């Protein structure tokens, strides 16, 4: 009967989706993501060959300046330094970070660590292996394991203390003689006739300096004060995470993340050491975030959230609340909308963010680093400005194949997982849980997308449509009533209303038809 639900709703769902896509593509203009570098240089950038002379002027003793030494910055410094580039990293605080994000690395991200030679950075920090997720809803639960059968035995997700991981990567980068890590605050980018030729910064002692290089890469995190110069920031805050650490307890499914489809929104558990489990309680932006200081948060966690916690974790959850080490943070989302700026590039959370429910941020950052390294390898002379500009433009196009799928999945899953009084949204949430419960290809392929092992946007769209069709089929069988037909129509409307704004933000043309983008066709890297 479960499979009949899919077949029963497939035709109707696909018909609505097809009509909607046609309408969108015919009635609206193609999204203005990234103009070609030639267009940019004609309208905004240096003219009459000035770009080349400016970047040659920035020669000095540094090839690349990296602003920020978080996950993206430190991994990038090691990767480019290992290729022989002279790298200067400027980080505002080189002490071990104490953050409650960036703690779960998906298997796809671990594969990128292997590719970059950074896999030993998860050794010696009490990192825990993660093999999948357990999903809870209304007293039912399912285990969804990563499809790792075709990979080396060492390949899995990893979870850890973010600060320990970053510390290991910074140490590894600093061992390279051509990589310089310096504590300082970058105050501005140095611009000359439309090109970025370096940065102004203050060192730890407050002295002001100017450092020049042919390429400056900004990856100074979600609080970046430089992003407005290099992209069009559209930062949204869909929710807040309330973070706790549970101690000396065991998860119901060992070495798995646990997601409870709770009310008002998901609750997440995963190990960060052999004795600690991170708990995140999501609070949607539309709901007032309880105050930690006046006791509102404690009351909220004990009265609203605790009854939804699996029994095996309940006592440890209450103990963590009573301990009082409760922290909150905004969950930001920002599509990548770069300005093509000669001599500069953006990476990491400074450039592109998605909801952290799916833990895809580090996978995107490490994938971007591997891509940039491969793009720059043939370019021995970074002072060749025209070639550098083309490769940087190609970077923004090539990265879409991975980043858009991960970003879209994060937005879809979070929106579906939020509790709602709307019957259509309730059905969508129930359809998603039951669809994954079918097992086989119905769970393996979606979990492969979540794990970063499959970056196919067509696979993502197929399964999203299949979930909607499954929901419609549930409503249509055994006999449709007017009320159920209305809810089914609303479900399709909700599904389209969820996915198309996300895809539009990512770039319809670049995400769904990347082979037609001029930047991808003209770069020498694409022809290799």
Q: At the fourth CATH level, what is the homologous superfamily of the largest domain?
A: FAD/NAD(P)-binding domain
Give the beta-strand count: 17
Q: Spans with pLDDT under 50 lasting ≥5 residues? A: 7-59
Q: Within the CATH hierarchy, at the fold level, what is the topology of the largest domain?
A: FAD/NAD(P)-binding domain
Broad structural category: alpha/beta
How large is the share of residues in beta strands? 15-25%
**Roughly what is the average pLDDT, rounded to an integer?**
87
Q: What is the CA-CA span between the terminal residues? A: 49 Å
Q: What global shape is seen?
A: globular
Q: State the helicity in percent bands.
A: 40-55%
**What is the CATH C level class of the largest domain, in words?**
Alpha Beta
Q: What is the CATH-assigned architecture of the largest domain? A: 3-Layer(bba) Sandwich
- Rg on CA atoms, Å: 24 Å
Number of helices: 19
Number of domains: 3
Q: Characterize the largest beta sheet: strand count, sense, and whether it forms a barrel.
A: 7 strands, mixed
Strand order of the largest sheet: 10-9-8-2-1-11-17
